[in-house]
Amino acid sequence: MAENTEQFVRYIDDIVWRFGIHVQDNSCCHGMSYADIRALKEISLECDCSMQGIARKLGFTKSGATRVVDRLEKKGLAERRRSETDGRVCCVQPTAKGRDALDEINRNAHARMEEIVAKIDAPMREIILTALGSFLGAAKK
């Protein structure tokens, strides 16, 4: 086992818990799970986001991505349509309600982060950003 593995696990688990959806006022999240929010963020970044693309980006199966999109559609946050470039492909896009929900969730997340970051001096913020970037880069490999 790599040195400090247990401490890494504890820290990451604690970070995820402190920034999880349950921390926010549930009314801000429009009844979405974290997976729903991540999927909505991904589809908002592309104008032609296929179900296969959503699955790949989130690390889900295609059927798992379909279930997430089904939930988003039921809430009026996303909609399916045929690709303009390939009519065989189903694409997903956020609705106006979905874009508004993402804006609200992002504002709340940024406000929470601003409170925390303000308590850390500038040089340490740079160290933390560099370390987090390195950590995420290793996780993606």
TrEMBL record:
Any Pfam family the entry gives: MarR_2
- A GO molecular-function descriptor: DNA-binding transcription factor activity
Q: Which GO terms describe its biological process?
A: response to stress
Write down the superkingdom of origin. Answer: Bacteria
The HTH marR-type domain, residue ranges: 1-137
SMART domains reported for this sequence: HTH_MARR
Annotated PANTHER family: HTH-TYPE TRANSCRIPTIONAL REPRESSOR YETL, TRANSCRIPTIONAL REGULATOR, MARR FAMILY
Protein name in the entry: Marr family
